[in-house]
Automatic annotation (TrEMBL):
GO molecular function, one term: methyltransferase activity
Residue ranges of the region described as Disordered: 1-38
Feature: compositional bias, Basic and acidic residues: 10-23
Family: Belongs to the methyltransferase superfamily. LaeA methyltransferase family.
InterPro entries linked: SAM-dependent_MTases_sf
Name under which the protein is recorded: Methyltransferase
Length: 320
């Protein structure tokens, strides 16, 4: 992984060029045939209450987000102490980039990636990975139990995370692990001055719009705070919860946090164009979207926007 942070505006001419050498996109930019157009973007028609697009632009962002998240984990794909699982499942696999890397890291593991959108590559992928269209909140129809079940950044996707965690427990082999990575729609200012900068900003408005949009369609964006509790109640043991504060851009002084923040900034810049459905679900007027998205892009690159957002990494084992 690269050690130099990708430059961001206020220190950047071309964010695309600064990241191209490190990012390894899946190359899957063919629209899912079950897609519909809204706000000039393509969205899944398989389940129409998913708030983010599934088009080529979003697929590119998901690949970038994968790299950004690996920087949070210091290059790792997961934190659970798994060794050589026989069967693994990646829920909400997106472009499949995590599952593909996992398959290469564990060539003796059979891994299935599931998603409501079929946007994963079908060529030049390891033979031990396959992708299936599935709504994971419906009944799972697998002919096996799994040694490892993973999902990442699904907070806007599920209506009942507690039930999903119980389902993961049920579909694990004894001794198997489940691991969940999530962010919450909260912002934590670095100090009082940063709190004043944040107040009333488009960034703050967007982070309030997320939970409002989620509530409108039955999603709880605070659910990650309860993952550990729900895992313990489901029967998991050795449950570990890691909470981290992630900078929104490259404002931190430390090199490591600056690198993490730079990647997150690029992720948010790419995300800005796909916020229309979420913002409108929260009651935002459609005619105001272009101006709001421009202010959002300014805010996430502003050096004075010294804020963090919380992430949760939670994993646990099914007892023997």
């Amino acid at each position: 992984m690269a050690t130099d942070p990708p430059k961001i505006p206020h220190a950047l001419e071309d964010p695309e060029d600064s990241t191209r050498s490190e990012r390894q996109p899946t190359g899957s930019t063919i629209p899912d045939p079950l897609s519909t157009e809204e706000h000039g973007r393509l969205f899944s028609a398989y389940r129409d209450n998913y708030l983010l697009p599934n088009d080529g632009e979003e697929q590119d962002r998901l690949d970038l987000q994968h790299t950004a998240w690996k920087h949070i984990l210091k290059g790792r794909l997961y934190m659970a102490p798994i060794v050589d699982p026989v069967n693994a499942l990646d829920i909400g696999t997106g472009t499949g980039i995590w599952a593909i890397e996992f398959a290469r890291k564990h060539p003796n593991t059979n891994i299935i990636g599931t998603d409501i959108s079929l946007i994963q590559p079908s060529e030049n992928i390891p033979p031990n990975v396959k992708f299936e269209r599935e709504d994971s909140e419906q009944e799972w129809i697998f002919d096996r139990l799994f040694d490892f079940i993973h999902w990442r950044l699904m907070v806007s996707c599920f209506t009942d995370f507690e039930a999903m965690i119980r389902k993961c427990f049920h579909h694990l082999k004894p001794g198997g692990w489940s691991e969940f990575h999530e962010g919450t729609f909260e912002l934590v200012p670095a100090d009082d001055a940063a709190a004043e900068v944040l107040k009333g900003s488009a960034l703050e408005q967007a982070f309030k719009a997320g939970p409002a949009a989620g509530a409108a369609i039955g999603r709880d964006f605070d659910a990650p705070k309860k993952f550990k509790k729900w895992m313990l109640e489901a029967g998991f043991v050795d449950v570990v919860e890691e909470q981290r504060l992630i900078p929104i851009n490259s404002w931190p002084v430390s090199r490591e946090d600056k690198l993490i923040g730079s990647w997150q900034c690029l992720n948010f810049l790419k995300l800005s164009g796909g916020l229309g459905k979420m913002l409108q679900a929260s009651g935002f007027p459609s005619e105001d979207l272009p101006e709001f998205q421009e202010r959002f892009r300014h805010d996430v690159t502003w050096a004075q926007m010294r804020v963090y957002f919380p992430v949760f990494i939670v994993y646990g084992r099914k007892p023997f």
